[in-house]
Design a protein that fits this description.
Shape: globular
């Protein structure tokens, strides 16, 4: 399945919905068939969407728009297919535990990932996941420096002060709007990308004012439409894409 990020996002939600329904059904059975029947699958979806901080209809729209956004970029050749496997529960929940462990112990996510035997290659750092984590953890301690996450998809909510020495080859940075709509780009002003491997990463329409890319590898990195006022590229290596400062409406996906 080419749309690996949409597959991952949907698979996580559907898997957790089924798990929740099974737990509630077991509780109902163990209570010797009390008066209240176990909730329907739709009700479980609503409960889980609420846990993510969204209404079910709003969550469905976000997933649908993000899926179309990924498909368009793949079809138009702006991105290449993710070589990493479509979502698998065993790996995903180890990655999730690594994120939680890092936030609990205030350590870099990559350090926690090494402890859990995973990387974040091909991972979807979605707005939904960020909203869920924000209900339980203090996100100011999120440290993505040195992160190994090639071919990942990174929502604007995941921008942090430093991605120093991170492996973000073919990373796709994007954001969602209240319209609703989805577009490439993140707000990452004053961000440290020093020494990061950003080859073929997609930064279209990003706000990168005063950010530093010293020693970064930027061969094929797409900076078209990005705001790069006083951005420091001294010492970066590779030929990158630039221009189209006003952006392109075709890069947006609207409902």
């Amino acid at each position: 399945m080419s749309n690996v990020f949409f597959a991952q996002s949907q698979a996580v939600f559907h898997y957790e919905t089924r798990q929740l329904r099974n737990r509630l059904r077991e509780a109902w059975v163990s209570a010797q068939h009390g008066r209240r029947k176990p909730p329907t699958l739709k009700k479980c979806r609503e409960m889980l969407a609420d846990e993510y901080g969204y209404g079910l209809s709003e969550l469905s729209v976000i997933q649908e728009l993000t899926g179309r956004f990924v498909e368009r970029n793949l079809m138009e050749g702006k991105w290449i297919n993710n070589p990493y496997p479509v979502w698998r529960p065993g790996i995903y929940y180890r990655q999730l535990k690594a994120l939680q462990y890092a936030l609990e112990h205030r350590m870099p996510v990559q350090q926690a990932a090494s402890k859990h035997g995973v990387t974040f290659a091909g991972f979807h750092f979605s707005d939904l996941l960020m909203c869920k984590l924000s209900q339980h953890y203090r996100l100011r301690y999120l440290d993505l420096s040195g992160l190994i996450a090639p071919f990942s998809m990174i929502h604007d909510l995941w921008t942090v002060p430093s991605f120093e020495n991170a492996d973000l080859r073919h990373a796709r940075f994007y954001q969602t709007y209240c319209d609703p709509s989805v577009s490439p780009g993140v707000v990452a002003a004053d961000t440290n990308f020093d020494g990061a491997d950003l080859r073929h990463a997609d930064f279209r329409l990003s706000y990168l004012a005063r950010s530093s890319f010293s020693r970064a590898r930027v061969d094929g990195t797409d900076f078209r439409g990005a705001v790069m006022t006083r951005t420091r590229l001294m010492g970066a290596t590779g030929r990158y894409l630039e221009g189209e400062r006003r952006g392109n409406r075709d890069w947006f996906i609207f409902e």
